[in-house]
Write a structure and sequence with these properties.
- The chain has 153 residues and is an all-alpha fold.
- It is built from nine helices and no strands.
- 76% of the residues lie in helices and 0% in strands.
- The chain is elongated.
Length: 153
């Protein structure tokens, strides 16, 4: 039943050509997280105007305590999707997502720290992701960074 509802929602969005923010607002308020994320993914792959609308909606879902929405918001700030790049805001949203239980946010946070040329902070994020969630990506990045850090005796 949920798949049929999701299909109908996506089909109706396609028919309406994703016009207007009222559709976005109704999705944000509907409580159907899967539908919201599918919709946001569609918008992210479209024009920058729709990316801005999608970011606005998904950010509101994140502010209501949805961990995955916080991660999507962080990734938008990190990559500049629907907004200008802002690593400070990205870090903040990744930390919110982690605090709400998102297991991937620490690895993403480590990548942001790496891009910001902050290897020690990246090590901390990756170490926590590896220890707490057994993230293979975090373990790999951890080894890579540690091998390139100078040894202090």
């Amino acid at each position: 039943m949920a798949r049929i509802n999701l299909f109908l929602l996506l089909f109706s969005l396609w028919l309406n050509n994703l016009q207007g923010s009222s559709t976005l607002d109704s999705l944000t308020d509907s409580g159907n997280a899967k539908a919201q994320f599918y919709f946001v993914q569609l918008c992210y792959n479209d024009s920058s105007t729709k990316q801005k609308q999608a970011l606005y909606s998904i950010k509101n879902v994140g502010l209501k305590g949805n961990a995955l929405a916080c991660q999507y918001t962080a990734r938008a700030y990190w990559k500049g999707l629907g907004t200008s790049k802002n690593s400070l805001k990205a870090k903040d949203w990744f930390l919110k997502a982690y605090a709400l239980g998102d297991s991937d946010s620490l690895s993403f946070l480590g990548k942001v720290f790496e891009e910001d040329q902050k290897p020690l902070e990246a090590v901390v994020a990756y170490e926590l992701a590896y220890q707490k969630y057994k993230s293979k990506e975090a373990g790999y990045r951890l080894q890579e960074i540690k091998s390139n850090l100078p040894t202090i005796w």
